Amino acid sequence: MEHPTAVQNPGPVLEATNLATLCGSAVFFLLMFVYVAPAVLRKVFPQYASLPASKRIIMDDAFDHPLVRLGAAIETAYEFLGLLLSLSIPALRLPSFIFHHALVSCMAVVQMIYKCSPHTHNLGFICMTSNVFLNNRTLLNGVGKGNTKFAMWNGIALAVVFFYVRIAMLGVEWWHVYHMAMQPGYFQNVPFLVFLVDIPCNFLFTILNCYWFSKICRIGWKITFGKAKNN
Prior knowledge:
Elements: H1 4-8, H2 16-44, H3 53-62, H4 66-88, H5 95-113, H6 118-127, H7 131-142, H8 149-181, H9 186-189, H10 192-230
Helix pairs in contact: 2-3, 4-5, 4-6, 5-10, 6-8, 7-8, 8-10
C-alpha cells in the first residue's frame, strides 16, 4: 500500500515556521548590516569613519561573513547527524563514511567559530551541490530505476559536477592556502584550530574527494564498457 503523501501530492507549501524563520533572519541580518557592523568597524578601525559612504557600505556587509558562518552552523549539524547515523546503523557503518563525516564535522565547527578563511567555508558549501545528484542516484537505485535514461543522465551530471566542485575547485582552495601560509608570521600567529583546517584537514579532504571521484569514474567505466561488452 502506498504512503498517502505519494498519492495526494499536495504540491509546494509555505509553512508558517519557515515564513517566521525567513522574516526573523531578514531582521537579524538587517540589524547586523545597519547597526552592528558600522559600530564595530568604527571602534576597531578609526580610519573607517573618514571613508566615503560608498566604501563603508561594502565593508559593513562583508567584514564578518555572518551568513557564511551561519551556513557552517547548519552544515555542522548535518554532518554530526551523518556521523551519528554512520556509527549507529550497521548498513552505514563504513570506515569511509565515518571518516568523511568526522573530518567534515571538525572542519565545519572551526569554520562556524572563527571569523577567518571565508574561502574555506564557501568551498565546503560549493562541494555540497554535488550531493543532489549523488542522493538522486541512491534513490533511483533503491527503487529499481538505476538503469533508466534519467539515471544515466543523472550519473553524467554527478560526474561533471563532482569534478568541478570537488576536484577542480581544490586548486582554487590550495592557491588561497599557499598564499596565506606564505604570509610572514602565519605559523606563529594563526590559531591552532584554524591551522588544522587550513592545511592538515584540507589535505585529508583533498585525498577523500579524489577517492570518491575515483569510485565515480570506476562505476561509470564499468557501466559504459560493461554494456558495450554485453551488446
